[in-house]
Structure formats: C-alpha cells, structure tokens
Q: What sequence folds into this?
C-alpha cells in the first residue's frame, strides 16, 4: 500500500492529533549529552530512584511459571489490594499501568463527541486518551496557583459530559485539591475520576468516600511509590458495576505474571517501600528550600515526588538542554500557565546534590 493510501485509511482526527510526549530513554540521547549512559541522572519521569522492594526482586527470581498466562480475573492481586486498602475486591481492577485503565474507562463511557472535563495544566495523558477514544476535550484552566476553579467546572458541565478527570496531587504542578472541593464536584453526580498516582507522597485520599458517592472513582499506580514503573501495573477503585464492565472489556491478560509476582511481594513489604517514600519526601522539602534560594527560579510547593519550577530569568529550554549535556535529565514545559519552566523529579540525596551543583553553575549560560 502506498503511503497516500495508508494516510486515507487513518482516522482524520488521529492524523492531526498532537502526540503524547514520553520521556527519552538515556541510551537514545546520543550527542546531546557528554556523559556516559550509566552516569546519567534521570529526574524527568517521576521514577523512584530507590527501585522496587528486594522482596519483589527475590519473588521474580524464584518464579518459574513464565510459560503460563496470568489469571485474567486478577484474583490474587485484587484480594491483596482488598487487604491493602480495605476496599471490596469487586470494586478493584488492575491494569498494565494506570494509563491503560484510563483508556478502558474512556472506551466504556465515551460515544463519539461525548465530553471529558479536564483541569489544565495537568497530566497530558488525560487529553491524549480522550481524543484517541473519540471524546471531546473540555479544558477548564486552573488559576495562577494551579488550583481548580469549581465554578468554571460546574459551568462547563453539559448533557454530553461523561467524566471529570483530575490528578490529585496534580502533575506537573505538584499541588493538591482539597477533599471538600472534590466532594463538591462529586455532588454534581457527574462521574469523577481522581487520579491518585502520587497519593503516597501526600498521604491524603478521597478513597473512603467511594461508598458514599457512586460516581466517584480512584486511580492508583505502583509506578511511583513502589518503584515498579517498568513492570507497568496500576489499579483503580470503581463502583462494582463499572468494575464489572471494565473487567469485561479489558484485554484478558493485561497484567503480566511478572507484574503480579512483583506486586504481591511489594504488598508484603509496604513498610520498607514507605520508608523510601519518606526519604523522598524529606529530600523534596530540602530540594524545594534550596531551589528557593536561587534568585532566577520560582519553585512551587509540591505534595508529590517532583517539583515544578518556573525560570524567571533566562531560557528554560537552554537550561534543560545544558543540564542534559551534563547528564541531568529534567522535563521541559512551555505551554499556557507553564511558560518557560521545568519539572524535576526527586532523586536520592547525592543525585539532587549534583543537580543543584550543576544548576547553580548555569545562570550565565541560560541568559546568553
Ligand atoms: C497523574 C499521573 N497518572 C498516572 C501516571 C502514570 O502511571 P502508570 O505508570 O501507572 O501508567 C502518571 C505518570 O507520570 C501521572 O503523572
């Protein structure tokens, strides 16, 4: 088939769709960095620098059943998560990263042109998967402190609204929406999905309210607190009827056996993993205080495992590129409300120290 013919076969809206910009693997950086791959400090994807639980590593090393398909009903995982959260297993669905569950929920709820309310700036996956699933994106901007605007959200609700989606803490800004505001949104009766990917770094959750609000859904992941981003496993808590439909439409073996084995072990090592979370929280506060001392930066307080920072003087793009040359990867932003800025994930103390040391030396370069 010729490229022209293929182009004709592709959905028009997808050929025009702006792609999701994923992080770059260090081994693909080529001449844009002067540092060997193994020395690169990755602070661009909110990964957990402490890695996963040693119990997960041991369980993976011992497992032998790789020739078998995993349990499509996710029985052991859902039971373990029931224990972990105190939420009935029939409300829980696991997925190949929490993004997959977002996708399945969109597939379940959206007919052509149905609307999703999205509080921007936020995690770009919400936009991307809405559009791939033929939804219509209704962006409601946050204010200059990145707080959501309840009045504007309520005003944006129409007969076609199928979902309000919200990250709490928000990515990339790190701020949080108070419970009372979430409950005001839940009171509208519109399905509300609260993405709590960074919940463990904050400690507050809307989860206990799911019994009271049948339109409330919560998304979680093992990528951040449990250091399992590479194994791809997330989960969600839904009203039992929605969970049943999600179980029906998901790919049967969406969660790999490796992810299952690793998570079952991680859930037996929560104290260890939360110890790492506490270390990252302490480092977040230290890094924030240090960034505040740099006159040409404006860091924003964060309840997650990253800090959003505006470059007040000089070019954020030049800064991010210069950091990359010196082997430090951070995430660059330049879009409405996130002008000339970057997000840095919290690393180990020595990684954050190196980042700060290099950052302080770059002032002249980024103003040139
Ligand atoms: C708000 C939010 N939700 C979900 C995810 C992705 O989680 P997962 O790795 O489970 O797909 C991220 C990752 O950056 C995120 O920031």
A:
């Amino acid at each position: 088939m010729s490229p022209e013919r293929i182009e004709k076969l592709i959905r028009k809206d997808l050929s025009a769709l702006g792609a999701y910009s994923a992080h770059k693997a260090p081994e693909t950086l080529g001449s844009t960095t002067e540092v060997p791959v193994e020395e690169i400090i990755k602070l661009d994807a909110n990964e957990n620098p402490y890695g996963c639980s040693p119990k997960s590593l041991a369980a993976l090393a011992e497992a032998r059943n790789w020739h078998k398909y995993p349990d499509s009903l996710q029985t052991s995982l859902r039971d373990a998560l029931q224990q972990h959260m105190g939420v009935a297993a029939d409300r829980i669905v696991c997925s190949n990263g929490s993004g997959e569950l977002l996708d399945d929920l969109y597939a379940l709820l959206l007919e052509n042109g149905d609307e999703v309310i999205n509080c921007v700036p936020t995690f770009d996956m919400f936009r991307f998967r809405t559009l791939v699933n033929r939804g219509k994106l209704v962006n409601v901007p946050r204010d200059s402190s990145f707080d959501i605007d309840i009045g504007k959200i309520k005003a944006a609700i129409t007969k076609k609204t199928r979902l309000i989606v919200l990250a709490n803490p928000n990515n990339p800004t790190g701020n949080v929406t108070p419970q009372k505001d979430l409950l005001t949104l839940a009171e509208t009766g519109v399905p509300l999905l609260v993405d709590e990917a960074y919940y463990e770094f904050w400690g507050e959750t809307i989860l206990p309210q799911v019994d009271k609000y049948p339109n409330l859904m919560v998304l979680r992941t093992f990528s951040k607190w449990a250091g399992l981003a590479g194994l791809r496993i997330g989960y969600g808590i839904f009203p039992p009827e929605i969970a049943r439909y999600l179980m029906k439409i998901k790919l049967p073996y969406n969660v790999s056996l490796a992810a299952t084995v690793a998570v079952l072990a991680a859930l037996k090592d929560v104290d260890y993993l939360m110890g790492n979370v506490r270390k990252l929280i302490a480092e977040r506060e230290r890094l924030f205080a240090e960034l505040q001392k740099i006159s040409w930066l404006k860091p924003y307080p964060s309840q997650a495992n990253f800090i959003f920072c505006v470059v007040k003087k000089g070019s954020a793009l030049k800064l991010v590129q210069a950091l990359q040359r010196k082997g430090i990867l951070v995430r660059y932003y330049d879009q409405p409300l996130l002008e000339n800025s970057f997000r840095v994930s919290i690393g180990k103390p020595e990684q954050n120290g190196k980042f700060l040391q290099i950052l302080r030396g770059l002032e002249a370069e980024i103003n040139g």
